[in-house]
Design brief:
The structure holds two protein chains of two kinds.
Chain A: H1 2-18, H2 30-43, E1 54-60, H3 65-78, E2 95-100, H4 111-120, H5 143-146, H6 151-157, E3 161-169, H7 173-176, H8 202-212, E4 217-221, H9 247-253, E5 257-259, H10 262-266, E6 276-279, H11 297-308, E7 315-321, H12 323-330, H13 333-353, E8 359-364, E9 368-369, E10 371-373, E11 413-418, E12 423-424, E13 430-431, H14 438-441, E14 450-453, E15 459-460, E16 464-469, E17 478-481, H15 484-494
Parallel strand pairs in A: 1-7, 1-8, 2-17, 3-4, 3-7, 4-6, 5-6, 11-14
Antiparallel strand pairs in A: 2-16, 8-16, 9-15, 10-11, 12-13
Chain B: H1 4-16, E1 36-38, H2 51-55, E2 60-67, E3 77-81, E4 102-106, E5 118-131, E6 138-150
Parallel strand pairs in B: 1-2, 4-6
Antiparallel strand pairs in B: 2-3, 2-5, 3-4, 5-6
Classes of the chains: A alpha/beta, B mainly beta.
Chain lengths: 496, 151
């Protein structure tokens, strides 16, 4: 043993001597050269301290650092790369921070509280929209006293136009937090208001905001909350309202344009300054994987920017990829990453259509999920598939699946809880994993395995990232509270 | 002698370990010539019926999916979904049916399978709008005279 140690030490010393002159054999290595290029690019980054004419925030609901990683690898693999080395559109932005997402009363946040933090600058309770933490969820009588101003309201007063986009219902928590004030996120139409509640429902608040010019362009789902229960929409689905009001008709009577499918969306005259409301589904818009007959998030982003760019005083635009979250709730990684790609494409479109010299773009998520990643998988392993071994003699993953102590393969992505639980109700909650093949795991409808049985997988309190470019984007770095994002947006829009 | 509890437990263990648990009315050998599909193969993206669905109308098929929690007890009707019907209490006030579901009318009063256990349904494919007189449930496509087993 002593002899071995001495031999090793001697080799180490001779290596040290060999590199003492600063010679670096790795200088011709591609990894080294790429890092040198990245270093020079970073050294050239200068803060932009002009006033931001435009502010765009893109929020992928439920797209924490882990979920975003899955989308990165998946998009890379769809482009023929191994995947891990891929860079999503927002990952090219020069500024980055980590965001603490908790609500004032919840370690694990919900989208109403987090949306309010980003759109109004204060953390609040879970489940409430556009109000501070003094309000007890569901108590309509407290809304007036607890209201906080939304960025849409504040920037409208400065003459800017405002757009709100979501692939979820426009009355759902995140988009609603851009324009509404509600004691409960579920008050999407009048039928959900408790008896005696004097607060207006969220759909009515969007209509009022559009009539008042606080919101100029709105694209998303949720048509049912705007029409009466007795009425069927263009796709034969019933409304939810019990007050017999047709808010779409009211908006059209007030001069707004209404579109409901891809055809009418594409026919929009984006040079006109008349308000636009697009309601493309009765409930949420379709997942990107299932999308047909309705615009993509990138298409809605492009249309909104072109429609809002006519205002010489600028615009504020809030864009949500609402269904990354829903696919995570379903434990269906395929739709998580395909909606994640649709989000990244919307980011790329927003970046292409604007200049960092006058437009602050912020890309973030409201919260993460109980998603986790198994190991040890080889390079280029299909991210939604089963975990294959590492090839010690090569780069790409081996042909041998990793197995658990039960002798069965497992997927790269797993969930701590959800519908994919391996614990079975019909076996008194005893667990036994089934066999999984790569073909089964990469099927678009596969539900990844989970531990704790729940009907719907949960959010988690883990940090999310914030990526930024444009005026004052450099203020988004370090580990920040989520409500700070609002303060950066307002600072950028008001900078002297 | 095997009592009922033993049988159910062993069936469940067999299913969990990847073996087919054979329920009455479904013999594996009898499936050999019957087309076996995933639910999504019945629909196009615009939710119109697929060529497969149109070609197999009124024929016996095998279709994979998940049993949504039944609307009522002691029923011979349930809804098959292509993924487990996860309902997020934080996100939704009402449980909502996906657009692409399949109504299943069983031969016998159904035995409930947990919503997240994959099953295979065997029965006759019926297309066209139908309103269930008992539940009021409207379906566009159904599998009738059906039996099912764990996957």
């Amino acid at each position: 043993m002593k002899k071995s140690f001495l031999t090793f030490a001697a080799v180490l010393m001779s290596s040290t001597v060999a590199f003492a002159d600063g010679h670096m054999p790795q200088k011709s290595n591609e990894w080294y050269k790429n890092a040198q290029t990245a270093l020079k690019e970073r050294m050239a980054v200068q803060p932009i301290t002009k006033r931001a004419k435009n502010v765009i925030i893109l929020i992928a609901d439920g797209n924490g650092v882990g979920t975003n990683y899955a989308t990165r690898v998946y998009q890379g693999q769809t482009m023929g790369k191994l995947g891990e080395e891929h860079v999503l559109a927002h990952e090219n932005f020069p500024h980055l921070g980590l965001v603490k997402t908790y609500n004032v009363n919840a370690q694990t946040p919900d989208s109403a509280g987090t949306g309010t933090a980003m759109h109004s600058g204060v953390k609040t309770k879970a489940g409430v929209i556009g109000v501070d933490e003094s309000l007890n969820r569901g108590d309509c009588s407290q809304v007036e006293g607890a209201k906080v101003a939304t960025i849409a309201e504040l920037l409208t007063k400065q003459g800017k136009s405002v757009g709100v986009i979501s692939t979820a219902r426009l009355t759902h928590a995140t988009p609603a937090s851009a324009y509404a004030h509600s004691a409960d996120r579920n008050f999407e139409d009048n039928s959900k208001l408790p008896e005696g509640c004097t607060q207006k429902d969220i759909a009515t608040q969007l209509m009022d905001a559009m009539k008042a010019g606080t919101v100029d362009v709105a694209f998303g789902g949720g048509r049912r909350h705007f029409i009466p229960k007795a009425m069927k929409d263009q796709e034969g689905k019933s409304g939810k309202r019990t007050d017999d009001k047709n808010l779409i008709k009211e908006l059209e009577a007030a001069g707004a344009r209404y579109v409901w499918n891809e055809e009418s969306f594409k026919a929009l005259d984006l040079k006109s300054d008349k308000p636009i409301i697009g309601l493309f589904e009765s409930s949420h818009m379709k997942y990107e994987h299932d999308r047909a007959g309705e615009p993509s998030l990138a298409q809605m982003t492009e249309a909104a920017i072109k429609a809002l760019q006519g205002n010489e005083k600028g615009f504020f635009l809030s864009i949500e990829a609402g269904r990354v979250d829903h696919a995570n709730h379903d434990g269906n990684a395929h739709r998580v990453v395909t909606d994640g790609i649709a989000f990244a494409q919307a980011v790329a479109k927003a970046a292409d259509l604007t200049s960092p010299e006058d437009t602050l773009i912020i890309v973030t998520a409201d919260h993460e999920h109980a998603i986790a990643f198994n190991g040890y998988c080889g390079r280029g392993n299909p991210i939604t598939g089963i975990c294959m071994g590492i090839d010690k003699n090569g780069v790409k993953y081996s042909d041998k699946p990793q197995t658990g102590k039960d002798g069965k393969p497992y997927t790269v992505i797993g969930y701590l809880n959800g519908a994919g639980s391996v614990l079975r109700e019909d076996m008194n909650w005893v667990g036994a994993r089934g066999d999984i093949t790569m073909e089964q795991a990469t099927d678009p409808d596969y539900t990844q395995q989970a531990l704790i049985p729940r009907s719907s997988e949960t959010h988690s309190g883990e940090d999310v990232a914030v990526y930024a470019r444009g005026p004052w984007a450099h203020l988004l770095n370090g580990t920040i509270e989520q409500n700070y994002i609002f303060n950066v947006m307002m600072h950028a829009a008001n900078a002297k | 002698m095997m009592d009922r509890r033993d049988f159910l437990t062993k069936s469940a263990i067999a299913a969990a370990t990847g073996l087919m648990s054979v329920l009455p009315g479904m013999q594996r050998d009898a499936h050999a010539q019957i087309p076996r599909i995933k639910m999504r193969e019945l629909y196009n993206k615009d939710l119109s019926f697929s060529d497969f669905a149109k070609a197999h109308e009124e024929q016996t098929i095998l279709v994979e999916g998940f049993m949504a929690p039944p609307l009522k007890a002691e029923s011979s009707f349930f809804v098959l979904t292509k993924r487990p019907l996860a309902v997020c209490p934080f996100c939704e006030t009402d449980a909502e049916w996906p657009d692409d579901i399949l109504a299943i009318y069983t031969k016998r009063i159904l035995k409930v399978i947990p919503f997240n256990q994959k099953i295979v349904v065997k029965g006759r494919l019926a297309l066209g709008s139908f309103k269930d007189p008992e539940t009021g449930f409207v379906s566009r496509v159904r599998v009738v005279n059906a039996s099912y087993e764990r996957f």
